[in-house]
Amino acid sequence: MSHKLELIAAACENMGIGINGDLPWRLKTEMAFFTRMTTETNHTNKKNVVLMGRRTWECIPDKYRPLKDRINMVLTSKSLDYGNETITCKSISHAFDIITQMQNQIERVWVIGGSSVYKSAMESPYFGRLYLTRIKKKFECDTFFPPIPNDFVLIEDPTIPQGIQKENGIEFVYEVYERR
Ligand SMILES: NC(=O)c1ccc[n+]([C@@H]2O[C@H](COP(=O)([O-])OP(=O)(O)OC[C@H]3O[C@@H](n4cnc5c(N)ncnc54)[C@H](OP(=O)(O)O)[C@@H]3O)[C@@H](O)[C@H]2O)c1
């Protein structure tokens, strides 16, 4: 596969990312950041992939899926059909095969969750970057971001909002990691 994997996630202080098939918080600006990062391309004739697990797909409200202006790919072991616009993949290597076949149409490959998909992507030789929003509050969660490998280091990315962000009294910060 020619593309690097870019992960995007938001986690709270206890590293939670979800509860009851939903996000534990409502942060419109953080959601807008996710949409911008995963949608924007430099080439107008290319789109980004959003690669996700089946439960993450299911937690996207009907009216918002497939996520627009992106190539939606859903990992599932089941024979599910999410319509013409969404690609279902039986395994990560199956997803990589499809990405390779479509590589001329694809600009970036975003891994958007959940837990096991993030873990596989961080362990993959194709790992590129992790965009992690650190939400500076504890929330009750049942789904967690996997441990960040020791050889990941924080890097500067001037294209993303810098410093502490705030919405509805909740503080958060955008971090970017690469493998050392
Ligand atoms: N805060 C964030 O940034 C963020 C991001 C994403 C999700 N979330 C939250 O996280 C929760 C959902 O995440 P999750 O970890 O529970 O589930 P998930 O990873 O989205 O989905 C798990 C399912 O994906 C399929 N799958 C995963 N890896 C696969 C592989 N290698 N090959 C084939 N199929 C594979 C399997 O589906 P089958 O059972 O169909 O085989 C598996 O049961 C929700 O609460 C959501 O709101 C939060």
UniProtKB/TrEMBL annotation:
CDD domains per UniProt: DHFR
Pfam families: DHFR_1
PROSITE patterns: DHFR_1, DHFR_2
Matching InterPro entries: DHFR, DHFR-like_dom_sf, DHFR_CS, DHFR_dom
Entries under SUPFAM superfamilies matching the protein: Dihydrofolate reductase-like (SSF53597)
GO biological process, one term: one-carbon metabolic process
GO MF annotation, one: dihydrofolate reductase activity
Annotated metabolic or biological route of this protein: Cofactor biosynthesis; tetrahydrofolate biosynthesis; 5,6,7,8-tetrahydrofolate from 7,8-dihydrofolate: step 1/1
Enzyme Commission code(s) on record: 1.5.1.3
Catalytic reactions of this protein: (6S)-5,6,7,8-tetrahydrofolate + NADP(+) = 7,8-dihydrofolate + NADPH + H(+)
Keywords for the protein's UniProt record, in alphabetical order: NADP, One-carbon metabolism, Oxidoreductase
Domain of life: Eukaryota
Residue ranges occupied by any DHFR domain in the UniProt entry: 4-179
GO CC annotation terms, alphabetical: mitochondrion
Enzyme class, UniProt record, top EC level: oxidoreductase
Similarity comment: family membership: Belongs to the dihydrofolate reductase family.
Function description: Key enzyme in folate metabolism. Catalyzes an essential reaction for de novo glycine and purine synthesis, and for DNA precursor synthesis.
Protein name per the record: dihydrofolate reductase
Organism of provenance: Pogonomyrmex barbatus (red harvester ant)
Taxonomic lineage of the native organism: Eukaryota, Metazoa, Ecdysozoa, Arthropoda, Hexapoda
